[in-house]
Amino acid sequence: MRSKAKRLAATSVAIVTAATVLAGCSGSSGSGSGADGDTLTLWTHNAGNAAEYKVVQQIVDDFNASQGKYKVRIQAFPQGSYNDAVVAAASARKLPCILDADGPNVPNWAWGGYLAPLDMSGSETAVADQLPSTVGTYDDKLYAFGHYDVALTMFARKSVLQAHGIRIPTIDRPWTADEFTSALAALKASGTFEHPLEMGTGGSGEWWPYAYSPQLQSFGGDLVDRSDYKSAKGALDGPEAVAWATWFRSLVTDGYMAQKGGSSPNDDFLNGKSAIEWDGSWDAAKNAEKLGDDLAILPPVDFGQGPKIGGASWQWGMSATCGNKAGAQEYLKFSRKTQYFVDFAKATGTIPATAAASAQIPGYQPGGPYEVFTQEARKFAVVRPVTPAYPYVSSVFEKTAKDILAGADPKKALSQAADQIDANLKSNNYYAG
Amino acid sequence: MTTLLPRAGARPPGRGPRTAARRRERLTALGMVSPAVLLLLVFFVIPVVLAFALAFTSARLISPTPAHFVGLRNFTLLFQDPVFFRSLLNTAVFAAVVVPVQAGLALALALLVNTKVGGTNFFRTVYFVPVVTSMVVISIVWMFLYQKTGLVNHLIDTFSLGHLHGPDWLNDPSTALPAIIFMSVWQGVGFHMVIWLSGLQTIPADLHEAAAIDGADRWARFRHVTWPGLRATRTFVLITITIDALRLFTQVNVMTQGGPLDSTTTVVYQAVHTGYDQQQTAYASAISLVFFVLVLAVSLVQRFLTREKD
Amino acid sequence: MATTPTPAPGPRRRTLRRIPGHLLRSALALLFVFPVVFMLISSFKPDQQIFADLGSIKAFLPVGQLSLDNYTAVFDRVPAGRFLLNSIVISAVTVVLGIVVNSLAAFALSRMRWPGRRLLLVLIIATLIVPFETFALPLVWWVNKLPWLELNGFHLALTEGWLDTYRVQILPFVANAFSVFLFHQYFQSIPKELDEAARMDGASWFGIYRRIVMPLSGPAVATVAILTFLPMWNSYLWPLMVVQDENLRPVMVGIQYFFQLNVSWGQIMAYSTMITVPVLALFLAFQRSFINSIASSGVKG
């Protein structure tokens, strides 16, 4: 009995000591990650998104079959937690060689040393031929490229607009702010809609800056001052921004829009709960299928500085810690065949990044019903601020916009947001190298 | 904690065997706690110390430059941050309401189903259903129910015969936190009902019988037999609910993200939000550290006060 | 079954007195299941209909176009079987290890005399105050440095880094202050005279733990089992951070698969139903021993 107790204690001590010693011994393990010889790991945000995942898999299969040297292996993550997985992997120095990134995060990841600059010369598609919003650059270097972009747009039923005597706007003659307001007033007055406008305010996260900062820009404001990215003052809290915020809040107080929209805005629109939906091009195919010719795809409203939409969607890059950069670049170059631009856009209902690809996709060809999206992306797209501070700016904007909708004083809320962003920029030394 | 009471029962006289027995007891005890202590050391103490140490640095979630020591800068910023104080307040309010309400309702439920009437097993299980459903899923479902035109308001409308109209629960700064409180109690109460039930079972039935024979009514029996018999259970229930309440995060993260107008932001939510979404790792660590010290201080004071009374 | 039911006067009055109690119990039952019924019913409806029904009692009724489409879609989207299996393995192993490790510690803390035990108990309880999310990232970095002995062919090999394993999802959650605390509270209600008597008969401490205290602690074991099982079943942040291989992911990570540009709410409801049912079944299986076992255990002092 006595020896049993001693043995128990002794074993425990031995385990502690061993664990501590071993933990201490294990130093850093080599420099590269994400590659085991010529087998490279690729990460994508597409777990659960079979359509887009299949395209990635197709490219990888084709690449693996096309040559004998490298082998690419896919690991997919659910989009909602993709960034957490990447950050965790980076902190453990376990980033894959090839990974995709949401466009606005590219500067942050490049600055943070996650991504390495790319040289895509010699691939089938020239980077210069892409929609500008599908190219991720930082410090004048190419860090990522996307196969597609998406466009913000408004959906409505032609029959509903006509019944209320509302003009159907076109790309060349979008609604003005006044026209938009009187359209909403007419729809509201009909009594058919409790909230005629659905802007997706039930969402959260990156949707907020993506969906609403273009309206701020159309008013003449912006998230930060883009001349040197050193302050948000003036851009985010100037008179134009206050005008935007006042208008934004008035949509709620006038009863045109719910302070928090439904959990599935597109279903609400299709169910006839809302008349006009501010949404993305990704819902176009579904809406067209349900509404047929009655579907009206409307360009964004011009609030003064021209219509604006957000630019940049998911893009591909290479990690800075990649242990086999030659192989990663080889794969990325291979993926730049027009065929794959076509496949991605078709599978996801998005805008192909090149004209060559557009020509091959029904609906996106010149004169097709979705050509309007390509035009929007070319004419109206504004990329989100190209600064490593973007994730912070985005988070502050989301909270501020929500507060404004909930009734916060526009001027005060915006100036507080600008102060916070400025303090963050300053405390990070303006994100210099 | 009554373990220090002198033991009844004789011990063999003589110094030698006795000290040997004590030493053996000590060694065995050490062996028995060491797996748990070792695991806590490796998977809790070390990472927490690392996390807290970050509070004194410039660490960011993503950064090209290594973190450096910045002294108390993060704490100075923290104490000027109105959102932090709002988070503290909300957390305190949440705990202050949820702890007594959930513990009390759980006890009431336990008494209600602690009978031999048919169907008790059925009711116990039904009350437990929300507990086994993931909080993420529950929050999603209640978001639907709480909508302005959702089911909760529909019911209010029906039962008041159209006289009352519910608010837009989660979008009104005055109702968002109460809505989350209600849902959280609803979700957790079944679990603590079960804990109370297992406590009730430890009370010997003959005590109740004796009291009944003495002519004690139900309330008297509850006060003099049941309540004292639940002493250990009580401590456990109160501490677990309190800790859970102070860690309020998932519901807020799914349903309101701290809004509207900071009316539902909590300390843990703020720590996660600034640490992950805003990438300010050091600042988030400072929030966690301050919160840890605060809660520890409160619970030590509480322990000290209750000990004096004993 | 000599438990606590309140002895009541006459049989007739008893029946009458029970009616309000029954009504109350049933009303409460409705309150507790209605959101879950909503989840179940919605899992059979297409999205557009879920939202059309949302504001009325129809949300709880199996009306409209019902189908199993959401369930088939779930299997197309998520390797649900694999995830369920992983979750069962991870949760079960954690529960078993947790019961052993934490009850051993609680036994030493509550029934044995040694210096520092009160302080240790306070320290262990204090660990509850720090939410997991706040030290998750340092923990990722740290577990990636931990060594592990691996049987490689016929000789042991030392490997570094715990990412992409089952153990990284299990071992950090084995030692649990809640469980230690619950066992501690429970063990204190078991009379110490039992130990004394056994000591006199020459039993070892470990023997007392194994043959006297643990057999009397059925409800505590069941409570700890559920207490450990639920958070393990529901964990998603940690597995996402430390598991890159899809084959090792647990069920809650699967929920994230449905939040795409267009959220498929019907599928979320179907998947939620699928992952909730096993837990409920488990509770049903457990609850008898959980609640009723004490009656026969003789903790009457």
TrEMBL record, chain A:
Give the lineage: Bacteria, Bacillati, Actinomycetota, Actinomycetes, Kitasatosporales
Name this polypeptide is given: Sugar-binding protein
Q: Kindly indicate whether the keyword Signal belongs to this entry.
A: yes
Give any GO molecular function from the UniProt entry: maltose binding
The protein's matches in InterPro entries, at most eight in alphabetical order, are given as: SBP
What are the alphabetically sorted keywords of the record?
A: Signal, Transport
Stated family: Belongs to the bacterial solute-binding protein 1 family.
- Which residue positions does the secretion signal occupy? 1-23
Q: Gene Ontology cellular component? A: ATP-binding cassette (ABC) transporter complex, substrate-binding subunit-containing
Q: Which GO terms describe its biological process?
A: maltodextrin transmembrane transport; maltose transport
UniProtKB/TrEMBL annotation, chain B:
Protein family: Belongs to the binding-protein-dependent transport system permease family.
| Localization per Swiss-Prot or TrEMBL | Cell membrane
Mind telling me which PROSITE patterns this protein's record contains?
Answer: ABC_TM1
Region annotation Disordered: residue ranges? 1-20
Mark the transmembrane ranges.
27-56, 92-113, 125-145, 176-197, 282-305
What are the annotated GO cellular component locations? plasma membrane
What positions does the domain ABC transmembrane type-1 occupy?
A: 88-302
Q: Where is the composition biased (Low complexity)?
A: 1-19
Protein name in the entry? Sugar ABC transporter permease
Q: Which UniProt keywords apply?
A: Cell membrane, Membrane, Transmembrane, Transmembrane helix, Transport
The family database entries (Gene3D superfamilies) matched by this protein are listed as: MetI-like
**In its UniProt record, which GO terms are filed under biological process?**
transmembrane transport
Its record classes its membrane topology as: Multi-pass membrane protein
UniProtKB/TrEMBL annotation, chain C:
Which UniProt key words apply to this protein? Cell membrane, Membrane, Transmembrane, Transmembrane helix, Transport
GO cellular component term, pick one: plasma membrane
Indicate yes or no for the key word Cell membrane.
yes
Q: Where in the cell is it found?
A: Cell membrane
Report domain ABC transmembrane type-1 positions. 84-286
UniProt record, GO biological process? transmembrane transport
Q: Which CDD domains match?
A: TM_PBP2
Q: Mind telling me which residue stretches traverse the membrane in this protein? A: 22-41, 83-107, 119-143, 166-187, 208-233, 268-286
Q: Does the keyword Transferase apply?
A: no
Q: Where is it predominantly found?
A: membrane
How is this protein positioned relative to the membrane?
Multi-pass membrane protein
Q: Which PANTHER family match?
A: ABC TRANSPORTER PERMEASE PROTEIN MG189-RELATED-RELATED (PTHR43744), SN-GLYCEROL-3-PHOSPHATE TRANSPORT SYSTEM PERMEASE PROTEIN UGPE (PTHR43744:SF8)
Q: Which family does it belong to?
A: Belongs to the binding-protein-dependent transport system permease family.
* Record protein name field: Sn-glycerol-3-phosphate transport system permease protein UgpE
